[in-house]
Design a protein that fits this description.
The chain is an alpha+beta fold. It is built from two helices and six strands; from the N terminus they run αββαββββ.
Amino acid sequence: MTDLAAGQIIDLRAILKLLPHRYPFLLVDRVKALEAGKSITALKNVTINEPFFVGHFQDYPVMPGVLIVEALAQAAGILAVKTHDGDVRQENALYFFVGIDNCRFKRQVIPGDQLILEVEMLRVSRGIGKFRAVARVDGEIAAEADLMCARREI
């Protein structure tokens, strides 16, 4: 697997080859850094046009915490695919979000924020990867969690 060179990014078109998610559920806009088997730094630009802001909450828009965690899980999925499958996800395999521990929310995420998703691969055993994930806005921790995802043939 090739790692990203300094200044190189994985853009949206490449992300669509790595993840099965599509609008409105694709929550990663760009990958800024990736070292296969080790870590990824990705970003999500949070805009008022997000469909969830219509109901959460109309007069005080806040990104739902569960979607912040999902964005972290998608970043972990990109890292897992790049580590195990290369540049394109294998058609007969999916990476499922299977566990979360030690999740904490520290800061609200609102329209206009850029959510930086930092995920470190801790270990992989029997097809299940364990990751440490942190979402930041302007250098402040918005959410953090230990995540697990599993590669499954479909």
